[in-house]
Amino acid sequence: MPELPEVEGVVRDLRPIVEGKTIKSVSLSDVVYTSHEAGKQAIVKNAKPSQFELLVRDMKIDKLERRSKYIFFHLKKDDERFILVNHLGMSGAWFVVTDVLEITEEKFRKHIHAIFTLASGELLVYADIRRFGELRFIKEIADHPPLLKMAPEPFDEIACDFFIMQSEKPKFAKKSIKEVIMDGQVISGCGNIYATEALFKMLIHPGKATNELSREQKTMLFRVICDVLQESIDSGGSTISDYRSINGGAGTMQHRLKMYGKKQCVVCETNTESLVIAGRTSTYCPQCQK
DNA sequence: AACTGAGACCGGGTGC
DNA sequence: TGCACCCGGTCTCAG
Question: pLDDT of A231-249, one tens digit each?
Fold first, then answer.
């Protein structure tokens, strides 16, 4: 599952290849078309597939930006600017190839949903096995209100104060700390993997109520989250199940995880336990985390 | 108005 | 071999 470090890796790999290039045309899969005809919106949001194909045509990819777990393709045509917002969902992946057969992993090749033909002749391909990802063409961020509610980037200097402020609101204070740090309106980009890791490092039980933590503990927890995210960025992200960097690349952070997916605590060897918090499996050590 | 919980979206993986 | 079920990031909508 791509979280902030994985998305950062994709953007860093994609940026030098696609920035400055022009999209000649886009072709969406039959699945996308059929879904829209059935009244759903697989992958392409807020536009009919045929409209989307026309909208993106001839746009220059001016800049790539990662914001939380989203990728913003800043587009430009004449003097007008637009944003193509992409979220990888559970299983989205980008490839840059000259022929889709170069995508060797069949499970991705079978689920190609958008092919952007660049003026350079390269194909920028979006594949998404579970179709939880999205491509959303907008004029500005305000066109999609949930984007306005995202917490600041975790490495932004105001992010820690923002986290503490949010965590003290009644809405969050009585929730479990795990649920709160995974909420994109509190901290950007921290999903299940890194929340699990950070709580283990801090020896905090994931079910602990947020208002039972002191400000000092919250500040330390925030630093630990940033450290874990940075360590993962430096390792190329965690390659778990369907996450791939561009062209199927893999990271190595999965080997450095100490609690996520573990059966035993690496410190005391006690069997780990898990709890479902906000719909997500939360693994923890009942001995170490209180 | 603001929050809460449920539902929706999916196919690979797992276990019976 | 087949099938039911589990899983999960985020938005939307009903209550």
Answer: 999 999 998 878 888 888 8
